[in-house]
Amino acid sequence: MTIVFTTTAVSGRGYEIMVATRASTLASFSTPAALANVNSASDDSDQYLTGDGKTLYFTSNRAGGLGGYDIHVSTLGTNGSFGTPQLIGGIVNSADSEVAPVPSRDGLTLYFAASHGATNYDIYVARRTTVTGTFNTVTLISELNSNAIDFPLELSPDGCTLYFGSDRTTQGNYDLYVTRRGN
């Protein structure tokens, strides 16, 4: 079992992604370590490890991005280490900031938050037709967004229930919300 999380100040840099493992639910987690090959000298956070443990989506403001924070992806190699992160393909990233990536189980849909020209983050959805293709459509989910910060957290395995955070009722304090769509 593996857990990935963000922390600060371990290496003296900004945010970085850490990993810890355990053999079973009865065992203790190992001492957390910086995730090799993924972290940079910039902020790396908002990690999402897919259920099979083979794909890591995360946010970074590292060099080579399109501006602000961008969504990156890294895949687990046959050597058991994650490979060099790449900007997620397609039209997801922009000169503004994109954060909080939450992929669907089949990898064809990606929920994320973006500040596209706004002062707060809104929830968007991107779609692609194959898992090796690029995301070629991005849509604002206006019915989920408010005038505050809104960001996705988790998607149910069937893709019908989205959990998201927002500070719409108490600025600076985030609450958990849930929405469900029909099949």
Helical fraction equals under 10%
The poorly predicted ranges are none
Tally of DSSP helical segments: 0
The CATH topology is what? Neuraminidase
Order of helices and strands: EEEEEEEEEEEEEE
For the record, the CATH architecture stands as: 6 Propeller
The total of beta strands comes to 14
User: How many separate structural domains?
Assistant: 1
**Average pLDDT, to the nearest integer?**
92
Strand content: 35-45%
Largest pleated sheet: 4 strands, antiparallel
CATH class: Mainly Beta
Q: Any idea what the CATH superfamily is called?
A: TolB, C-terminal domain
Helix/strand structural class: mainly beta
| N-end to C-end Cα span | 31 Å
Instruction: Report Rg.
Output: 16 Å
Largest beta sheet: strand ordering: 4-5-6-7
> Shape from CA axes?
globular
Walk me through the structure.
There is one protein chain. The chain is mostly beta strands. It is built from no helices and 14 strands. Helices cover 0% and strands 42% of the residues. The strands form four sheets. Strands 4-5-6-7 form a four-stranded antiparallel beta sheet, with no helix packed on it. A four-stranded antiparallel beta sheet has the order 8-9-10-11, with no helix packed on it. The mean pLDDT is 92.
